[in-house]
Amino acid sequence: MPVFDSGQHPGHEPEEEKREAPDVSKGFEATDVRVSGVLVFLVALAIFAVVTGMIAYGLGKVLNAHMAREDGPTNRWARPVDVRPLGNMPNNPEMESKVGELTERFPTPRLQNDDGNQDVVDLHAREDLLLNNYTWIDEAHTKARIPIERAMELIAQLGLPVAQPVKEEPLMTGDKKPVINVPLTNGFARTGYEQEQAAVVSGRKESNK
Question: Which pLDDT score, from 0 to 100, does residue 60 have?
């Protein structure tokens, strides 16, 4: 039967390593830090920095040489020019106006930078322009829109045309006559952004008084 021999025999325990007990009478560490380890680390760090700089410098040289070969020989059409003596270019109002026109004519859809709040404001402004003013519908000026307040007054005075009664068919078994619920609002409400803008405008008017 195999027997495992750990090398230790009863009655012969391994002797513990004799270590000197630290002197705690002073209340602080009396030994100094090993300067050799710090010096080795600093030397290794310096060597690493120098090697990394040399590799980066060599890569820069290789890339610059490759770009020089791609650009070809220097001539009057391809040569480096120092533009710093030219200074900053003056503003050109005509060019700025042209850029503004190009921006206005930029095709849709355009990038929105305010979550579409200003687009909704512009849409409601166009709707208010149509609802609150007289405008022509056709180019021949034969039909026109009238303000909605005036249209409501005319309807209240003249009434709506009476439609012919619709002949109702008898309901089939299990069917119910539909019930139309009157809406609580007219279906239109200003957005929070528009309300904030209106509050700012009203505040300015109050401060100007």
Answer: 94
